[in-house]
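re: that chain from earlier
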Amino acid sequence: MLQNKDFAELTLEELLIEEKKLKKNQTIAAVLIGVAIGILVYGVATKGFGFLHIFLPLALIYVFYKDSEKNKEKLRQIRIEINAKNID
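^ sequence. v structure.
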């Protein structure tokens, strides 16, 4: 995936490929957040409140959410560039 790259330098095809990758990453992040929430609920329901049952899933949710937010910003920038290139 692109890291700190100027999206204006990419061609329309490259932008579309990056957009597809970011959409896929968003879907994966959403699934992983859901799994972590499921683990959290199951752990609390079966084992009660414990460090591993609460902290570990919450930490994973936080990491996945932060990564998802970065991907949303990149996706927004890519869509702006795609729209700009489609107008030309």
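Residues 10-87 form one domain.
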